[in-house]
Amino acid sequence: MAENETVVITGFGPFREFLVNPSWTAAQGLKSVGLGKKTGVYIKELPVSYVKSKQIVAELWQTLHPKFAVHLGVARGSSIVLLEQRGKNSGYRDRDVCGFCPESHCCIEGGPEKLDSVIDMRRVSKQFGQPGMEVIYSRDAGRYLCDFTYYCSLYHGQRRAALVHVPSSGGLASAERLVPLLQALIRSMLQQLEEPPPTA
After folding, report:
1. Which residues participate in catalysis according to the annotation?
2. Among 87, 142, 179, 183, whose CB has the most other CB atoms within 10 angstroms?
3. Model-wide pTM > 0.70
4. 3-state SS of the chain?
């Protein structure tokens, strides 16, 4: 299998009330079902730690050179899937599970303030947004570990990354319903990635 046909999928480790993080359960489910014959899936659990997640994400891009990276995080109290368009570099003031917060409150010193995914998440959400509005487009990933990790990945991966917030409650929180939906969403993103760039 060609190295660049690999898709990296990450989920987070234990966090507050989530002794088993639903994002990591979803990542494991995606590894089981796969993304198609030609696409390899590599999964990695990220600790809810600024230092460690930043280091791991940089290493994943440098060593695996994946085609695309999908970061899954949990949206507390949400019953829908959120597709995040943008990662932000600064404004990180909440402490992680180690009690740490970056002194500079930012991801990458000197990096752009915002980075957007190469994927048009609004377009993806429109494909899956009906009925019942289970998939929503978002441009604010929340300034915590999910947003932080997303920005680092967009930075290291030339913006070939996605952040998907999975629900913590409601019918979609069950792996049986969530994993097939995530599989379809990621396939749609990969399809978009294959499209030729628009000509001016």
Report:
1. 84, 146, 165
2. 87
3. yes
4. CCHHHEEEEEEECCECCECCCHHHHHHHHHHHHCCCCCCEEEEEEECCCHHHHHHHHHHHHHHHCCCEEEEEEEECCCCCEEEECEEECECCCCCCCCCCCCCCCECCCCCCCEEECCCCHHHHHHHHCCCCCCEEEECCCCCCHHHHHHHHHHHHCCCCEEEEEEECCCHHHCHHHHHHHHHHHHHHHHHHHHCCCCCC
The domain that holds 24 is classified in CATH as 3.40.630.20
Within-domain flag for 62: yes
